Batch of 2 targets.
Target 1
Amino acid sequence: MPLPICYLNGDYLPLTEARVSPLDRAFLFGDAVYEVVPVYAARPFRLREHLDRLDRSLAGIRMHAPLTHAEWGQVCQELVARNSGGDLYLYIQITRGAEFGRNHAWGADLTPTLFAYASALEPLSAQLLDRGVAAITAADTRWARRDIKSTALLANVLLKKLAADAGAYETILLENGELTEGSSTTVHVIKDGVIHTPPNGHHILPGTTRDVVTELAARLSVQSKSDSISESQLRAADEIWLAFSTRGVLAVTTLDGRAVAGAAPGPMFKRLNRAFDSYARELAGTPPL
Ligand SMILES: Cc1ncc(COP(=O)(O)O)c(C=O)c1O
């Protein structure tokens, strides 16, 4: 659920009163980029990594960063404080701005629209942790620059809806016989004690949670590898995990209706999930940037 106070172009105001122009290019073209930053115990988690990715997304759509990391850090802290802290997530969006008229090729001197709001982060239900989630597969129908975290998410939205229609949690995407990612998650495939994820590149969003998984795996002396994963490797996985900022890691326990890992979260998932939890808590009180 969205929390009451948002940030819009330098001001903090009630979300219900926030207004942007219908001529904003985000509204007309999806011409905008965004980030989602989890906050645990009032502390933004992996903020530097999210802001680095935001900068890369901005560069990818030929925009300059309108705020420094320190300034975004300030906005994040302010939103957390004004919405009573705790566990939540922050949504940050930068659009190319509004101009009078509709031109695919944007003009010079546009003023970007800066928007951020906070949302409650519901604790993971015991059912999701104990039973895992269902996933289906589908062909990846997205554009060629999936590394840019663009608000133009129509393909992702349609693909996620396929999962919802099938009573599943996520749609795992395949392209040319290989795994790319989920419609809003990084997919990890575990085989013979090794964690595999597809390499970063233009074809997937470089996940911040995936990097946490890699770091925690190293701490646990579990090997992780970045390599291409075929559809048959996905289907033969010992475990499949979804990683994403607002939920950390979730176990996939059925894929296209067939059981994965005995249809229950596997032992590797349990270890990693515990490590994730304690890592997020151990950072409490340390500076977010
Ligand atoms: C397409 C896609 N892939 C992967 C991810 C996971 O990225 P992160 O772990 O940084 O949230 C997301 C998150 O929203 C996503 O939308």
Target 2
Amino acid sequence: MSVQWYPGHMAKAKRLIREQLRLCDVVFELADARIPRTGRNPVLDQMIAHKPRILVLTKPDLADPVLTRQWLDVLGQSGTLALKFNAVRGGRVENVFQAVQRVLDGAGKGHTKGFFRAITVGIPNVGKSSFINRLTGQRVAAVGRQPGITRGKQWIKVNRWLEVLDTPGTLWPPTTSDPAVGYRLAATGAVPDEVVGKEEVAAWLIAWITENNPGALRKRYDLRVIPGEPVDLLEIIGLRRGLLLPGGKVDHEKTAAMLLKDFRNGMLGRFTLDVPELP
Ligand SMILES: Nc1nc2c(ncn2[C@@H]2O[C@H](COP(=O)(O)OP(=O)(O)OP(=O)(O)O)[C@@H](O)[C@H]2O)c(=O)[nH]1
Ligand SMILES: [Mg+2]
């Protein structure tokens, strides 16, 4: 299942990033800690290849902590300066500033002198604006649950020596036939639910959780058995929660929406959909 969501503002955003990149000393590339492979835009990756980069794994509170540790190790071993950062609660801004200083030093730009500019890039809804708000300690950039909140560029002064550019999230035209890529992007909220369809995403997610941690579904929805077909499970969950249509049939759309909400809020547990390749 390839995701076809490339609205006009994204093409514009790509041009904007290319143009603004010249002014920037550092790039913050943000990737959702639940999809550290699938959630990285290969087109952006090429665009920023020549710049000092810090890879920030966002929403670590929703990801499997053991796998996040493994991802950070693997990325570090491959020479990428990577850190995890919870922009909602607990993210330590000093760690980010230290990382900036390290990459600037590495690029031969002493951080003690002058003023620096960073650009924040990543797929929609990854948490770019939240990250910047956390760095400043203020709500300066608009944040929202849906992808596609930031539409234009916004320079934000973070401290005496750093200014950061917020950019709209960008996806890329599909380059892979692996259906899991589209589903992982959809499940984590990088594309609007209407693009793939709530029921289809929920069915994929149920199958994934059933295979990887069925106990999570049993516990959350108080189930004794997990049926083989995701649609049957959706039916049971809908009945349990009383999500019915006027005629008494289960409202699959509503049930799927509830399941996706539970997953995205961490109510089902902490999951990482991309597994790192360990050496
Ligand atoms: N649980 C959790 N949620 C987060 C974290 N960071 C951001 N979010 C949530 O993720 C959603 C998207 O955040 P934004 O900052 O608007 O994401 P964005 O990348 O700027 O999105 P676009 O502008 O649409 O590309 C919001 O509901 C945030 O509250 C985090 O560390 N943990
Ligand atoms: Mg934004």
